[in-house]
Amino acid sequence: MRMGEHYPAGQKEAEAWCARCRRFTLHRVDHPVPPAKGGGRLGPCIDKDHPPLGLSRAQLKRKEKSEKDAQNPRLFE
Ligand SMILES: [Zn+2]
Q: How far is residue 9's CA from residue 21's CA, in Å, rounded to a whole number?
């Protein structure tokens, strides 16, 4: 993504590289009030798999583990 990229009014989301997801994801487009000439600015990643901010390393590890377990339902048979 180019720095300072602007988005037209009404555009609510845009695809951009997310460093935390390590792939292209949907990001929110923030529109300043009153509307700026340049349009909306790229906001935070809104991908459903985006790791939430504020999670400790231990919490992240637990989250990864529960996701791994969810992908291997055979473990519970
Ligand atoms: Zn993300």
A: 26
